[in-house]
Each structure stands twice: as structure tokens, then as C-alpha cells.
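Data deposition worksheet. Section B asks for the primary sequence of the deposited chain exactly as it was used as input, without tags or linkers unless they were present during the calculation. Section C holds the resulting structure in C-alpha cell form. Section D is free text for depositor observations; keep each observation to a single sentence. Incomplete worksheets are returned to the depositor.
Section A, Depositor: J.P.
Section B:
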Amino acid sequence: MSPYPFSVCSDEARMAIPKVMGIETEYGITVKNQPDFNPILSSLLLINSYETHISRIRWDYEAESPLRDARGFEYMEEKDVPSKEESRLINLILSNGARFYVDHAHPEYSSPECTNPRDLVIWDKAGERILNLSRSRAEAISPPEQRILIYKNNTDSKGNSYGTHENYLMDRRVPFARIVQHLMPFLVTRQIFTGSGKVGAENNTEPCEYQISQRADFLETEVGLETMHSRPIINTRDEPHADPEKYRRLHVIVGDANMSEVANFLKVGTMAIALSMIEDDFIDRDLSLESPVLAYRRVSRDLACREPIRLKDGRTLTAVDLQRQFLELAHRYYRDREAEAWVGEVLSRWGSVLDRLAADPMTLSRELDWVIKRELIENYIAKHGLGWTDSRVAMIDLQYHDIRPGKGLYGKLEETETVDRIATEDEISKAIYDPPKDTRAYFRGLCLQKYSQEIVSASWDSVIFDLKEGPLKKIFMLEPLRGTEAHVRQLLNESPTAADLLQNISRPNFGV
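Section C:
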């Protein structure tokens, strides 16, 4: 069945909509030998150093609504929208369909929309390469002693946490209470394969030498709108970036930044499967936890993955066994449903990883970030006779996430082929410049490549043109699975200019 165009099915033939997905990563940044280091100015330098043939196009903030809550209300605060000049300084809209910008005190890369976890791994990895290209170009115009360091992690180990947010397209009609009920135990326990590992504890939480997740200590409530304080496990932001009558964008803020492609693949793949089951009201058991926030922290400190977690109904299950409940449901869910090829790979890897976590987590030292990093640190500690609180141990923790080739520890493991890969370097290199072909990111990216001089602003769901005569022309892209290569390739081929595009797009056979 063709994925474009599509509409939400009737209740009689209800079926989960395709889980269009993306990842937003806030990177850690610091500058060596710069006593007056300012993270905002350094992030600006980074963004503005990324050379692109695309002219500076401002981000269109008009449709953004970060204070709207999925529970049915909106906070009434002044909307802080940058001026046109500021928008151009802090935003790049890239030819691969992504957004590269300054978010508070961090450079952030938001991937283009993808339809499957493998593509998302590719375009997320492309983000690392884009950050490194920016770093190289920024250093070229900086004093030679000032080196810019960029980390794909979630904490500066000084009490500050920054996010790696996932986004998934969902049917608007699914009750949010159902999402919360079933997603809570899934998110609390999936960290056993998605965590990126962390030395020590923060945020006045229980001390430990090492833990699974970098975000666990910073999650303080079960459900809420905030992302920078009182962080919830389930975020309620209701900002669909699509047709608001049909769709919800589930904004997930609890995930760690993954260097491992396998961990990243499992993170978004299992999540897409779980959300499809929730959407179809397929989950026929209540796995609600007694205390999700405390459970999240306990799971993070359970390096053997064997500690029982108490459910609301009095039962206890380990994190592995709770994940196995979801895996068993997923196998049953797809028994009588057509599934994309990636589903089978996710289910297979999911089961294999859970089996090895139950037997001995350290057997996953090629696949899971927290295990890979733990083995590196334990070997270093044993070799040098150190304790976990030694500053050199903290440095290894940080260096694991350094994106510089030849400097970052994970990158060195990739070079020596001692970690498993999902994507090829050729795929990642192409994804730096070109968008996915099967979402609206294709139309956005190709418009930026072909008509950048006539585009004044853009966002996830629109592109605005200025033809220098008459009013501005806005093309809406409210359907994430329209604007694909199959859908608009002929339109773009027959439109050598932006004026041609705007004329042709109104023809019956076209239209985004």
C-alpha cells in the first residue's frame, strides 16, 4: 500500500499510522584555553561557520506553540520569537532537510523526518559530521590555541543536563491518558539498551560509581510540559508540525544521546513499535509502575539488570522482563499485520539484546553505549590502579562522546571496527547534503537546493517564497508523508524556477 498520500482510517478499520520520526540533539560545547568562554557566542560561531551554498533563510516561527499542552490547555506566556536578523544568525535550514541552530546555550541539530529507524540512524550520524565540519571551520578563524570541543552527551557533570529529544507522528484521536499508561513502563525500562552510560551521580540523587543512563538523575516528575526543570518522563508538548486535526507529535525527552548506531536503532525502532501498539489499543495488560521516577533511577543503577521493580498491582518484574512483555506483545501484534522490513530486524535485535542483558550485560560490548563505555573505563581503572572518582575516569567518560575524528573514544572504536555498525560511511556522507526521499523533507531539501534565492523562510510544515513581485507565497506541508521523491520529482523537474514551481503546484496532478 502506497504511503502517500494517506489519511487516517475509519474506526472500523483502525490501523496505526506510519511512525514518521526524528531526533533533536543538543550538543555540549566548550573552548579550550578561552577563560571567558561563552557557550552562546561559541554556538553562534559554530552555526555561522557551516558553509553552505544555501543563502541564509530565516526560520518561520509562526506555527510554533511550545506552551500548548496535550492535556488540553495552553500556558499563557509571552512568546519569545527572534527578530529576522537574529533568526538568520541562529538558524540554518539545511539541504538535507534538517535544522541546525542555537538552542539556549547549545548547538542543536534536528534531523529531517524519517520513516524508519535505519534512516534515522543515518541522518542522525550525518548531524555529527555536520557539527564536526562546523567545528573545523570555526577553529580556522579562531586563535590557534583555542580549540573547540563538542560532545554528543547529556550532561556537563556540573549539574546541567541537555537533551536528546525524539519525535513520533501519532493519530490525534488516541487518548493521551492511554499513551501515558502504557508508555511510562516502556520508557522507564528501555534505558537498559538505550542508555549511554555515566560516571557518578548528579542532581542530589543517590551516589553511585557508574550508571546506565545520563538522563535518569534529571527526571523529576512523571508527566509535564517542562524540558529544562522539573523534567518529566512523559512530555506533554502539543506542537504537531503537521495537520493538528489529524496528528500529534509525541515529544520524547528522556532519551540519552547515543554514539552507538545499534543503540540508536533500537531506541527509535522499539519506540515506533510500542507506539503503534498503543495507537491500535492492542496492549491488553497493565504494566503501570508503583513509582516511575524512583524506578527510573533504580534501573539506571542496576548494572546487572536483575533488580525487581514494583508494579502498581503488587507484582515485581526486572527491567528485562518488563521489556520482554512488550516484545512478546509486538510479536503477537505483527503476526496478522503487514510490516515494513525494518520491523523484523528490530524485533530480532530487541530479543537478542534482552537475552544477553539477562545473562550478562558485558557481552554487549560491541553494541550498547553504556556497556562499551563501562568496559573501556574498567580496563583503564585496572591498568592504572585508579578509583571511580579519579578525574581521569571522568575524562574518559567525556572523551567517549567527543565527535572529533581521532580524538573521540567511540570514534576510535569505529575506526578499529570493534563496535557494530548499522550505516555505511557512504550513506552518512550523502545524508550530510541530501534529504530522505520518502517524507516531506525531500521537498523541503530540494526546494532549498533549487530555489534558495527565492525562499525567505521555512519551517517543518511550510516554505515561504518571495518572487520579488506580489505578496509572499506560502506552501504548506501539513502531511509528513507527502512531498516525497515519488510524489514531487516530476513537479520539481518541470519547474526550473520558483515561479514555475508555484504555478505548477496548483495543477491537479501536483500539490504538496
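Section D:
Residues 1-13 have pLDDT under 50 and may be disordered.
The CA atoms of residues 233 and 487 lie 37 Å apart.
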